[in-house]
Write a structure and sequence with these properties.
Blueprint lengths: L23 H5 L7 E3 L5 E7 L4 E7 L5 E6 L4 E8 L4 E8 L8 E10 L6 E4 L4 E2 L5 E2 L8 E5 L9 E8 L5 E8 L5 E10 L2 E4 L5 E7 L5 E5 L8 E5 L6 E6 L5 E6 L7 E6 L5 E5 L6 E6 L6 E6 L5 E4 L5 H12 L4 E7 L5 E7 L6 E6 L4 E7 L11 E8 L5 E8 L8 E5 L16 H8 L3 E6 L8 H5 L8 H15 L3 E11 L1 H12 L6 E5 L5 H8 L4 H10 L22 E6 L7 H13 L4 E6 L9 H19 L17
């Protein structure tokens, strides 16, 4: 099969090895593509392309590599997801974000476009905007006062899609609507009996379940027998435990639920809808299902991916063709993660993403009849996987006996012993996790000679509800102790040189880095905080203005503002004895730059060495590649002064501007 040169349609990227330092430009370049899906008939491929401050949907004809259509989002807007709703029609949803690390927030806008770029429409949206197709696309009359997102259903004929819609308000009621993918005309098919609801449809596209919560954040799950039937309350969240529907049997008589457990990871349960009898069909020993695997073009689940350490799949329907296909691909790409992103309706062609800790990701088109795979594109073709560092899954017991999980990345070619170490806590912190895969920050730091420790401390997702709940109200407490225990584990294992360890993180990771050097002043040699929050009472005071729901969540998961000053790094500056580097953006809505300025002021008053990098035009994570290059160049220089690692190369051969 002819190799598809999709990347060549949009950008020509080049990179050369750089001697004498780390080629930072290679790491700040964006992926050439993110999502890639094949059309139901196999004629087209659609891809999302990240740009500096927005993303683009591009469609090419598979046989000719001809670019047939594009859809460009406005500034700070991204394609959150897209789905082929028929052989020639694609519907996409928009999200807005104000920084590279900001969690994209759905705007509720839905757009549609034909594969040839024609009949581009805003189906739902509150803005009138230029869609980048040379014409002004206006929202449909009456659809500009709601926001919506797609409800997963089998691919149809391209005329309609099932969506969840709700008005703009702090605590809205939701409805399920059948929307015409050309005219935007909607027909209501269900109204949720509670606020902030989501919906699940069966294999016929009939909405059967809805779940959500009112401002008290207590989740409810409802079921109905079919269109027009009354809702029946099935589950109320109890002691923090809940369940959500993930699919139906082929005859729609059995629902499959992902069910939180009091101990350990979530289970997948099959429930007979007539008798309500429940049977556990799949559960991993350590990890929650991270992604459900379905029969092609159905809502029939057959198994799941699990992300404990290196990802793996497991099936309760092992004889399904999709299960056999998955296992054969995993055997062919041994040692790598394998995800089938989409298939043609007839199952003849499957688009497969392959990735690893050393490989940012490759896409292959697999012919299921001929059993042949053709390479389509690489996310970052300028990286040679064999020259990248490896990430080893780790686990150990915290001081209170809780088993913790994470990853240790060591420089390529090193013996993994007595290394300078960077402890890199992830952001969030609640219900977020680090995954095994290619991590740009870990790879860059490893290229500079550092071991990198990433910990899924308590509060992180992926290991069951109890693991998440253990992080409630533990900012600066047990979550911080977990990072300390991880550092001491690395020393005891002989990985880390105890005299050369620093903390570096972004968002909550920035908080944890500064809190770490305040709480354990003799353990670390420096700390770097990127777009962090450092005053918790201020954070809560600012965030609770949004809504009652937000205030309830913060009290449940962060704590009482009156007690949080004791675990706010900017109020503990006198305890910090090591150099600090702070970076922040003036437009950051998640972690306002005032946090960094307050932290800087407190450090200077305490006589602590501090250096800063502020950009008034940036937000929660820097977008501009020149700014990103400057940040990582400064970060490497800062770490080198305490740990002795490599600096950024000067005159890098890989020009970051080429990636724009």
């Amino acid at each position: 099969m002819k190799k598809l040169l999709l990347a060549a349609a949009f950008a020509a990227l080049s990179s050369n090895a750089v001697a004498g330092g780390v080629d930072v430009s290679a790491y700040v370049r964006r992926d050439q593509f993110t999502d890639l899906k094949i059309s139901p008939g196999g004629q087209y491929l659609a891809a999302t392309i990240p740009m500096e401050d927005r993303s683009v949907l591009a469609v090419i004809e598979r046989g000719t590599n001809k670019l047939t259509g594009t859809f460009k989002m406005p500034r700070d807007n991204y394609i959150a997801d897209f789905e082929w709703v028929g052989p020639e029609r694609v519907v996409l949803s928009a999200a807005e974000k104000f920084g590279s690390l900001d969690e994209p927030q759905l705007t509720g806008e839905l757009f549609a476009m034909n594969a040839d770029g024609g009949k581009a429409e805003m189906l739902v949206g509150y803005r009138t905007q230029d869609g980048g197709l040379g014409t002004t696309i206006k929202p449909k009359k009456g659809n500009d006062r709601i926001w919506a997102y797609l409800i997963p259903t089998p691919v149809g004929d391209g005329r309609s899609a099932l969506i969840s819609a709700q008005p703009y308000s702090d605590d809205p009621h939701s409805s399920a609507e059948r929307i015409d993918a050309f005219t935007g005309r909607m027909k209501r098919v269900a109204i949720a009996p509670m606020r902030n609801a989501r919906f699940a449809a069966d294999n016929q596209g009939v909405v059967r379940f809805t779940w959500g919560s009112n401002s008290d954040n207590i989740r409810h799950l409802y079921y109905r027998t079919g269109d027009g039937a009354e809702w029946d309350l099935l589950t109320i969240e109890k002691e923090g435990l809940f369940e959500v529907p993930i699919g139906f049997s082929a005859d729609d008589q059995t629902v499959f639920l992902q069910v939180e457990q009091a101990r350990g990871p979530d289970a997948i349960i099959a429930m007979d809808l007539a008798t309500r009898k429940r049977t556990q069909v799949l559960r991993d020993e350590k990890a929650d299902p991270s992604r459900i695997i379905y029969r092609n073009n159905t809502r029939v689940p057959i198994g799941a991916y699990f992300a404990d350490g290196r990802p793996h799949s497991a099936f309760f329907d092992k004889e399904a063709p999709e299960a056999r296909l998955q296992k054969s691909l995993e055997a062919a790409f041994a040692g790598q993660g394998v995800v089938i992103t989409s298939q043609t309706n007839d199952g003849a062609l499957a688009l497969v993403q392959v990735f690893s800790d050393q490989n940012p990701g490759d896409f292959y088109l697999f012919d299921t009849q001929a059993k042949k795979a053709a390479h389509v594109l690489a996310k970052r073709e300028w990286f040679d996987p064999e020259k990248q560092a490896t990430a080893k899954p780790i686990e150990f017991k915290a001081r209170d006996g809780m088993m913790l999980h994470g990853f240790l990345t060591t420089p390529n070619g090193s013996n993994g012993r007595n290394l300078p170490l960077v402890v890199m806590p992830h952001g969030g912190p609640i219900d977020v996790q680090d995954y095994w895969g290619f991590d740009s920050d870990a790879q860059l730091l490893s290229a500079a000679g550092y071991a990198v420790l990433q910990l899924n401390y308590r509060g992180s997702s992926g290991y069951g509800k109890a693991y998440i709940s253990a992080g409630a109200k533990e900012w600066g407490g047990r979550m911080q102790d977990d990072l300390t225990d991880a550092t001491r584990w690395a020393i005891a294992e002989g990985v880390a040189d105890k005299g050369r360890i620093c903390l570096y993180g972004a968002s909550y990771g920035g908080y944890a880095s500064l809190m770490g050097v305040a709480k354990e002043p003799d353990l670390y040699k420096c700390a770097a905080g990127y777009v962090g929050v450092y005053d918790l009472p201020k954070m809560i005071a600012d965030d609770t203005r949004d809504s009652r729901r937000s205030g309830n969540w913060l009290r449940e998961w962060v704590g009482d503002p009156a007690k949080l000053g004791d675990v706010s790094p900017n109020r503990l500056a006198e305890r910090i004895k090591v150099p600090v580097f702070l970076a922040a953006g003036g437009k950051d809505r998640v972690a306002p730059i005032e946090h960094s300025r307050m932290m800087e002021s407190a450090l200077r008053k305490a006589g602590v060495p501090v250096e800063t990098l502020y950009y008034d035009t940036e937000a929660h994570g820097f977008y501009t590649e020149e700014h990103r290059q400057e940040f990582y160049t400064r970060l490497l220089a800062f770490l080198s002064r305490s740990l002795g690692g490599s600096l950024a190369a000067t005159g890098s051969a890989g020009d970051a501007k080429a990636a724009k």
